[in-house]
Every structure is written in structure tokens, then in C-alpha cells.
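re: that chain from earlier
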Amino acid sequence: MKRAEILARLGFTVPEAAKIRVIVDTDAKNEADDQYAIAHFLLSPTMDIRAVTAAHFEGKAGTGDSMERSFKEIEKLLELMEIEDVPALRGQKGPDDTGLSEAARFMIDEAQREDQRPLYVAILGAAANLATALRAVPDIGEKITAVWNGGGPYPEGRPEFNVMQDPGAARALLSSSAQVWQIPQDVYASFEVTLAELFSRIRPCGKIGEYLCRQLEENNLREFDPDFLLRAGDNWTPGDNATVAAFLMNRFRGNWYTRPAPKINGDLTYDDSPGGKEIRVYTGLDMRMALEDLFAKLALAYGNK
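^ sequence. v structure.
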């Protein structure tokens, strides 16, 4: 089925001028929340999803196959959502993969297309795929805005999961000519819900709703660590949905500022870099608006299926 047919179930249309080109770049099998963000992007009609690209999480996995696992998870989600016309693409296999993956090649080709609309790359994990594309063809950065879920809180910074997977890729992104909208850890960590809310609002929404909830429950049972501050046992932080929120919210909110891109130190803290390019740093996002939007879109598209 075409994505447009799924979007028609929402029952409303959006202005053509509001539609933007987006590539969703995701370490989809790392844990359980990328899946929610992928579904949210695919159900948002203002977003012309050009592809969903698989990112590695080798800093955590160390198995050499984390990107492939992400790729298979993307394929599974597309199948459950009944969407056949959005490509899933393989990315870099790890920090030491210097080849040009199909994801990186697609980003280059999409940036070089004659299309007047901006190209956004929503980075939900390691920045390896876009960093590889930017290293290969630096000029494409002038046509790309990276919406980057990553980096520790300002001003000091600290080790943060997405940067930890590939610190060199994060540094390459910040030193490139691409625009960067950064959503640091303290902001995406505010996207908190309980399992009860997810199960009551999302589980009834067809095969995709059932899968989203069950795979999260399984991950929570398998990986729960009392010392991990984001988890209490019956809560979850779907932090990758913060990247969707950055597109949904109006531009009068005053919820970001610009600053020179920092230097990322060896311990993944920040140092000031006065000569760094200006980046946008978010200070807050409307978690409730974004999650209610996800609940509503899933219900409209799949609630009675």
C-alpha cells in the first residue's frame, strides 16, 4: 500500500507549501523508542519521507551487526504499517566503516536533487550516515539541516548515548557546513510517559500498535537497570519523538537559542569553540502535544483495523 493511502485515513489534508523533505536516520533496534518516532514521522502528512535509513549502535552492541538489525527492524515496521513505497536503506556498519553505504549515497543524491524545498535529516542515533555523506561530498551540507537528537546538556556536556556510539561522526557533523538543530539529552529526556498510558492509547491501534507496546515491554523486562536514571520500571522515555516535535511546533515558542558549535572533548564533555558555526540548541519541546499527536494519528490510521 502507498503511504498516501495510509495518510488518507487521517481524514485531513495539509497545505502543499507546508510539506518538507525528510530522511529519518535511526538505530531502530537499539532499544524500543525509535519505533515510536519512525511511526510518528510516517504518519505526519507535512513530512515527505524520502527514506528511512539504518544507523549502527556499535558502541553498545559491539557485535558488528547492529546496523543490519536496525535495517531489519525498519523493514518490519514498514510492513506492520502497510507502507510499501518508502525505502529502507542500509547505513554504515560502525565507526570504522569508511565506505559509502547506500544510506550515505542516498543522502548525497537527495541533497543534489533539483528540489527547492529544504532537506532535513532527522538523526535518532549515531550521526555516522550523514557524517559519511558530508565527508564524501562536503558541499551538500549547504542544502541540509540535521535535526540531531544527541549531546549532553549545556554548558558542560557529558557522555550521551548517541554521541558515545560514534564520537567522530558527531564531531564531523558539528564541523561540517550543514545546519544543525541540536536536541540535547536533558530536552529529549523530558519525553516521559507511563507504560499504562502507552498500552491504553497505542496498543488498540492495529498490528503496529500491538507491536509497539509489546516490543517495548520486552525490552524493559530484558534490559531494566535500577541504576539507569531514565527508567523507573513502569515508565518510558520515547525521546526520539522529540525530533518530530521540533517540526510540529510553531515558531513563536522561543524554545531554542543559537550558539557556536562546541568542541566535543575526549570524555564527551564540551569545550567552547568561538570559531565554530552557529547551531540551534533546543531548550524545551512540547512533549504532551507531540505524544498526543502520535496517539491520535495511530488511532485514526489503525485504531479500527
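The first helix runs from residue 3 to 8.
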